[in-house]
Amino acid sequence: MTRDEVERALAELPFRLLRRLGRAITGPLALRMGKRRLIHTIMAGAEANSARIEAAIRTHEAEQRALAAGPGPAGPASAEHRVERPADLRALLEGIGVPEPRPFVPDDWQVEAVEALERGDVIVSVPTGSGKTYVAVEATRRAMHEDRTVVYTSPLKALSNTKYTEFCKIFGPELVGIITGDRRDNPAAPILIMTTEILRNLLYDAAGGEIDVRLDTLGLVIIDESQFLADPERGVVWEETIIFCPSQARLLLLSASIGNPQELAAWLSSIRPTPCHLVRHQHRSVPLRAGYLHPNGKLTPLFRTVAMPPSPSQAVLHPEAKRLFTMFEEDTLYTRRSG
Hints:
CATH architecture of the largest domain: 3-Layer(aba) Sandwich
CATH class of the largest domain: Alpha Beta
Radius of gyration: 28 Å
Largest sheet: 8 strands, mixed
CATH superfamily of the largest domain: P-loop containing nucleotide triphosphate hydrolases
Mean pLDDT: 83
Structural class: alpha/beta
Shape: elongated
Helix content: 40-55%
CATH topology of the largest domain: Rossmann fold
Number of domains: 2
Strand content: 5-15%
Number of helices: 14
């Protein structure tokens, strides 16, 4: 191999093999190097270590050939060590895509959450993708019908921008505004999208005597990603926003990962003039699919699929994922022992 070919081959090596090769050539210092510097260091001693370098390249090529070869002959010995089959990937990806159009019927928990806002504040704790946005939109419609201002807060400017676009499509751009650290569009609109810090600052100003008509007509505050209440750095912003929120406004807290929703509901009921209703829904309408995406674009299921025969060992991990974890463990142990 020419020097350029060797350098290109080194660039294609997985970092674990490259680091192992560098450790053998330069010692423990290689463990502190990035990939580019490591390749440069190995190439500096390429002539004296050509056998080691070629062995590492051959090892990588053999692994790639084994992955490309696909499953071996069927049998008990190969069943637990074969790479994933197309049927496994079909089982992993089945159902992904745009569903067939059908009339929308809200779930019972969605109706419960919207109606509960008539009586007090509401916490909605449901898995991601279950339909929290429907509750926010319907609650906004009702507040607009009563000629009240609605504020939708999120922890991130990017999420605020997304919700702004979404609400503009639903209610029309003339009725929706956005206020973030670097954006201020239609700030007098009856529906305002903003980061939680912006709302906290507005409430601070109002507490200091500054008049804000938007707060006087405030009827609904939607706090998305309300699990940030537990954040050690930013949680105080969410807490102060809730405490200073005008008593005439309803609070709608949305989250997929509140750890203690009952305690939060009890706290809200103790500091707010109206009781807080907790709506929980455990069923995940959009199932999670666990897989590992290789740098070369190949996808490996992490867990066994229904398309695979039963495992004698009752293993949960997909055989290929198990092989990857084993390789990682061996490489980690090698690094620790070598160091």
